[in-house]
Amino acid sequence: METFAFAPAYELPSWPFTPPPELGSTRIIRHPIVIVGAGPSGLTLACDLAQRGVRAVLLDEDDTVGVRGASSRGICYAQKSLEIFERLGIYERMAAKGITWSFGRTFSGEQEVYNFNLQANSVSRQPPFINLQQFYVEWFLVERIFELGLTDVRWKSRVASVEQLHDGVRIEVETPDGRYTIEADRLIDATGANSPIRTQLGIDAHSSRSTDRWCISDVRFKKPLPTERWTWVDAPFNEGRGVWQHLMADGVWRIDYQMPEDCDTSYISKPEVAGARLREQLGPGVEFEFVWIGPYGYRDHLLDSFRHGNVFFIGDAAHVVSPFGARGGNSGIQDAANLGWKLALLARGQASDALLDSYDAERQPAAQENLRVTSRSARFLAPRSPAEHTLRRAVVSLAARHPFARALVNTGRMSVANDYPPTPQLPEGGRSVQNLPLRWADGSETTLMQLLADGTQCIGLWLAPTRAEADAAMEATASLPRRLLAIGGDSGLPTLQADERLTNHLGLRDAGSLVLVRPDAYCAATLPHATPKAIADALRKALARNTQP
């Protein structure tokens, strides 16, 4: 019988359980913010709050990152998430450890249908994607949270029950040393797709009926493969089903094989079966060792609302979509970035509770869009009728020769920062502003994310205002969390060098025009003629505060 080598197991960190002060006490302590779940979205939110100087309690039922073993889980981190991680202080570690990429190829059978370069339209300091095993990202976030020192991280702490109160939430926590009860002004559920909190509260997730199944092989090869994202629509070495191939950190390749919905998950994950698939793909002489093999299945779901009273749902607890285009984990990270600054301003008395309603108003439509996009990808990759099979064959055949058809080859529209619909806080709707490299007037370098990492405030980027306009605007907005910066000119404000790439990306055309950027790097307003009153009114709208006459 053939034997298969497995790479040495990863040494994942673990942290001790520390008995909290509530254990053994009849006194119930109220905390402003409690986050449940130390996955990517929960850790991002805890780190975001700590970066803003806001304390939170983070509960997790485990004492490590990732899962037991070396499963890569989520691996593709999109530009918007990478920009968030620069602001939080872990991007450089991710870039040093992970694999940066922007180029991908798509195949049908043995024929390349088309390729793409995601770098073409980017002006950000961050690349379109970095591939990195999820446990590394979680690891870096935990260490950054400890470095910031404001988060009470409680390992081995499972939430046993949740009760909504009129002014908060009561939480019963189970630990190795017994149970205790705490209360929170606001509870954030980041416990994942099978959220027990969601179940306890009786909230319908609207799960799909069918399960999409895959077998994941994390593999290290003796001879490296090209460092590109390769995708097969109908791989001949996988019985005509889809295959994804990505390089991750430590020289490990992630290869995802689409499986029949009724497959035997234990059988498809056997080393000899997974090894046969690899040899079918790469030739009988390929030399490799497995790092991890395992089945993956999901049912997509989407909550009607991401806010229920004082409980907020982020990440997979709120929405699950198919993995095509890396829109799942990245969307959860961006949920956290959307909610974090709003919680921070509320904690400081600089915003009202109405601002928290905008979390659902913005992120629920974003999840709807991701679900629509990935569902179309799923139908293209797993046609459910003869007509869909015929359509796919026609599209693939045309795409090799005609550029118009390449846009129809749907192996996953890669994750992008979602636009937001118009709301009272975003009268024009919202679009993400990329992390532009910037220079101060003296020539020193900065970036938009570095500007946003300094406090929790909106930034007004103002094209060549006059000194009188700047002085009046500073006075009109003095009570609001803002930072006004000039682009060129001699206004007396801190001044950035004028740059055509910057003004074009921001849509600033004429002197006196201003773009208001929120703390999550979304454009809150564009003011072609930025009077002091217009700037103050735009700030109040963005913060859900009543405008003044």
Describe this structure in words.
With 549 residues, the chain is an alpha/beta fold. Strands 1, 2, 8, 9, 10, 11, 18 and 19 form an eight-stranded mixed β-sheet that branches. A seven-stranded mixed β-sheet has the order 6-5-13-14-15-12-16. Helix 1 runs parallel beside helix 4 (134-148), helix 1 (40-51) runs parallel beside helix 8 (328-347) and helix 13 (467-476) runs parallel beside helix 15. 47% of the residues are buried.
Range of helix content: 25-40%
Overall mean confidence score, pLDDT: 90
Question: Separation of termini?
Answer: 82 Å
How much of the sequence is in beta strands? 25-35%
Rg for CA atoms = 25 Å
- The count of β-strands is 27
Instruction: Characterize the largest beta sheet: strand count, sense, and whether it forms a barrel.
Output: 8 strands, mixed
* Unreliable stretches covering 5 or more consecutive residues: none
Silhouette: globular
Number of helices: 15
Structural class: alpha/beta
How is this fold's topology laid out?
Layout: E1 29-36, H1 40-51, E2 56-59, E3 76-78, H2 79-88, H3 91-97, E4 99-101, E5 103-108, E6 111-117, E7 129-131, H4 134-148, E8 151-154, E9 158-165, E10 168-175, E11 178-189, H5 196-200, E12 212-221, E13 229-235, E14 241-247, E15 253-259, H6 265-268, H7 271-282, E16 288-298, E17 301-302, E18 307-308, E19 311-313, E20 319-320, H8 328-347, H9 354-381, H10 386-399, H11 403-406, E21 437-439, E22 445-447, H12 448-452, E23 458-463, H13 467-476, E24 482-487, E25 495-496, H14 500-506, E26 514-517, E27 523-527, H15 532-542
Parallel strand pairs: 1-2, 1-11, 2-8, 5-13, 11-19, 23-24, 24-25
Antiparallel strand pairs: 3-7, 4-7, 5-6, 9-10, 10-11, 12-15, 12-16, 13-14, 14-15, 17-20, 18-19, 21-22, 23-26, 26-27
Helix pairs in contact: 1-4, 1-8, 8-9, 13-15
